[in-house]
């Protein structure tokens, strides 16, 4: 085997023009495909990344007034498409006033329920009891910091006293996640506010007048759910609408457009790759086969002097393997140059992680293995030709 | 003394449309170290006979082709054609038992002269660098040992082929028109070297040539292929040549 490898390599070196020709053919096909694949990755990943940067992309909100219970939320929570779900109080009571404990400045903010696993709180998994998350804008206007005590103040027209509920800042949401003045609290706190508006007595919070709270049945106007993945957003939305017979709002169309773009880019790339691969296969098969035909006498000589025919069949396969390695090395080198030029030309800044043309190590390895197997397969016809070469032609051709 | 090679009743028949050619070998005996000359007109099957003897062509069933060790029992090489794994066994036997000198060298152009000569040793696993050096010296190839063969004259290439054929110390050397491409002086020189070098190694040598005059200048056992035509059937039979 060592002898055969040595002979194959020596022959390849001597025939370096043909060798470089095959390597160039490979690179000519592979490099454009790599660039296309890299661009597809870069553009698609950037679009997907932008979508995933905003948790609201995966958010589904029920539209209008409906009636939900904790059992409904539990049902949705159990679906595989669901990452998080919470009940919502009536949107009429979404606005609260917030101030730092002991502070003079008070600001109106939109209040929304949250809970453990809420993507809005990521990477934090949730808030501790008694904590609230405030938007950067609200924190800035009130001078709030994490750990600071705040008062959530509600005033209802028919109630002589304000409802003041205490909380502690557990998280300040980044600007891009929550714009304007927003406060996220546990659902129970918002439910108290709703009960306050509904004129229930809340003696624990200093509201003694009103209907007894014990007679109140908790009922919620809506649901806010998050899909686990972009691909499950549309199915989850459809499932919620079908289950409860309601309309919902979500960025489904936008997500579907990006996913569709990715699919279409993938299909276009697959089609291009298939056509290119067919051309490359034809070029390599004929090249390797023609080479064996051209070297028939040399191959026959090896058989004549006693080299096993099975080893001789490997002669073109070894040369194909070396050609594949060289072709891949050249292709990736040229791809690197092309990617660099593309970045310089377009300066896309599509993502923080990388630019227009992206290829992961795992993808590069898979492509390399695929190309290697492809080229070796292309050499099988030549191997068959070598195997069929009759050693007697060395004598017969002369006769 | 027991012959190193005995072939008897070997036949091969080839058909091309309505034409039929049959080669018959009633008896061929070659002793160890014996030099044998094979003559015959063009188309009488000289190369075909060498192919049979070199395990390159399958003879028809019924004949025997026995190669014997010095004192050991003979081995019927014709039986290898039908044996399991026969092709590999035939290749192995061919590599170890035979050396070949084709008409035009059959050298590998990407190897040097020395590497070409060593090739038969490496394939048959009989590496002996000193023997290669001795052969190169004996055949006057020392000065070109490091050169690629495509830079050599035809005469030099034939000498390289002779060296390669002998490098792994084969029992037999089969030379098919080894001097056909050479001028008369170089032909005599190459033929002399081939016969002498084979004798040095006690290898039997079988040389086919259409040049009876050339063969006549050396002490060879001579065989001749005589063809007989009957309609579309040509039958060529090997027979000991008459002394001329």
Descriptive notes:
Chain A has 399 residues and is of the alpha+beta class. Chain A is built from twelve helices and ten strands. In chain A, β3 (95-100) and β4 (106-114) form a beta hairpin. The longest helix of chain A has 43 residues, at 252-294. Chain A is rod-shaped. By secondary structure, chain B is an alpha/beta fold. The A-B interface holds A 3, 7, 10-11, 13-15, 297-298, 300-310, 390-392, 394-396, 398-399 and B 46-47, 50-51, 54, 56-57, 87-88, 91-92, 94-96, 99-100, 102-104, 106-111, 119-120, 122-124, 164, 176-177, 180.
What is the tally of beta strands of chain A? 10
Helix-strand topology string of chain B: EEEHEEHEHHHEHEHEE
Strand residues, percent of chain A: 15-25%
The mean pLDDT of chain B is 88
Radius of gyration of chain B: 18 Å
Principal-axes geometry of chain A comes out as rod-shaped
- Please count the helical segments of chain A: 12
Order of strands in the sheet with most strands of chain A:
3-4-8-5-7-6
User: Structural class of chain B, please?
Assistant: alpha/beta
> What's the shape of chain B?
globular
Indicate the mean pLDDT of chain A.
Answer: 88
Can you tell me the residue ranges of chain B where pLDDT is under 50 for at least 5 consecutive residues? none
């Amino acid at each position: 085997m060592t002898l055969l490898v040595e002979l194959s390599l020596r022959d390849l070196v001597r025939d370096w023009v043909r060798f470089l020709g095959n390597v160039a053919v490979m690179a000519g096909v592979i490099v454009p495909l790599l660039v296309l694949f890299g661009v597809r990755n870069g553009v698609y990943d950037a679009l997907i990344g932008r979508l995933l940067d905003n948790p609201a992309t995966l958010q589904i909100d029920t539209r209008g007034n409906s009636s939900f219970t904790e059992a409904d939320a539990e049902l949705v929570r159990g679906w595989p498409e669901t990452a998080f779900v919470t009940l919502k109080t009536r949107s009429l009571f979404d606005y609260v006033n917030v101030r730092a404990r002991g502070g003079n400045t008070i600001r109106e903010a939109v209040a929304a329920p949250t809970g453990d696993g809420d993507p809005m709180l990521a990477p934090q998994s949730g808030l501790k009891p008694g904590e609230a998350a405030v938007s950067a804008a609200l924190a800035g206007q009130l001078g709030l910091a994490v750990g600071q005590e705040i008062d959530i103040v509600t005033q209802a027209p028919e109630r002589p006293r304000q409802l003041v509920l205490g909380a502690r800042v557990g998280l300040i949401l980044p600007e891009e996640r929550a714009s304007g003045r927003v406060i996220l609290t546990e659902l129970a706190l918002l439910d108290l506010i709703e009960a306050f508006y509904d004129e229930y007595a809340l003696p624990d919070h200093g509201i003694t007048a009103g209907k007894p709270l014990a007679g109140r049945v908790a009922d919620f106007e809506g649901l806010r759910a998050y899909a686990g993945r972009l691909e499950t957003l549309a199915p989850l939305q459809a499932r919620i609408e079908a289950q409860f017979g309601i309309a919902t709002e979500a960025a489904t169309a936008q997500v579907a457009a990006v996913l569709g773009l990715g699919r279409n880019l993938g299909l276009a790339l697959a089609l291009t790759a298939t056509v290119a691969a067919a051309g490359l296969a034809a070029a390599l098969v004929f090249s390797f086969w023609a080479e064996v035909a051209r070297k028939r006498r040399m191959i026959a000589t090896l058989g004549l002097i006693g080299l096993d025919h099975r080893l001789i069949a490997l002669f073109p396969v070894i040369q194909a393997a070396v050609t594949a390695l060289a072709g891949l090395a050249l292709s990736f080198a040229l791809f690197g140059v092309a990617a660099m030029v593309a970045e310089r030309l377009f300066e896309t800044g599509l993502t923080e992680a990388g630019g227009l043309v992206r290829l992961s190590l795992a993808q590069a390895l898979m492509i390399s293995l695929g190309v290697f197997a492809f080229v070796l397969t292309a050499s099988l016809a030549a191997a068959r030709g070598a195997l069929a070469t009759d050693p007697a032609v060395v004598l017969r051709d002369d006769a | 003394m027991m012959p190193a090679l005995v072939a008897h009743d070997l036949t091969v028949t080839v058909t091309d449309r309505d034409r039929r050619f049959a080669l018959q070998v009633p008896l061929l005996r070659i002793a160890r170290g014996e030099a044998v000359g094979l003559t015959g007109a063009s188309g009488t099957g000289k190369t075909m006979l060498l192919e049979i003897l070199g395990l390159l062509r399958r003879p028809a069933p019924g004949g025997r082709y026995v190669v014997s060790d010095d004192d050991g029992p003979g081995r019927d090489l014709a039986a290898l054609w039908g044996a399991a794994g026969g092709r590999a066994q035939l290749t192995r036997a061919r590599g170890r038992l035979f050396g070949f000198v084709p008409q035009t060298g059959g050298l590998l152009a990407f190897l040097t002269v020395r590497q070409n000569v060593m090739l038969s040793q490496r394939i048959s696993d009989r590496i002996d660098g000193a023997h290669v050096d001795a052969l190169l010296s004996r055949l006057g190839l020392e000065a070109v040992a490091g050169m690629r063969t495509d830079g050599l004259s035809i005469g030099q290439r034939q000498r390289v082929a002779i060296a390669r054929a002998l490098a792994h110390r084969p029992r037999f050397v089969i030379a098919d028109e080894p001097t056909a491409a050479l001028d008369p002086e170089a032909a005599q020189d190459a033929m002399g070297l081939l016969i002498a070098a084979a004798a040095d190694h006690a290898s039997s040598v079988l040389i086919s040539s259409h040049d009876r005059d050339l063969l006549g200048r050396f002490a060879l056992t001579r065989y001749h292929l005589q063809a007989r035509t009957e309609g579309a059937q040509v039958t060529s039979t090997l027979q000991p040549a008459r002394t001329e």
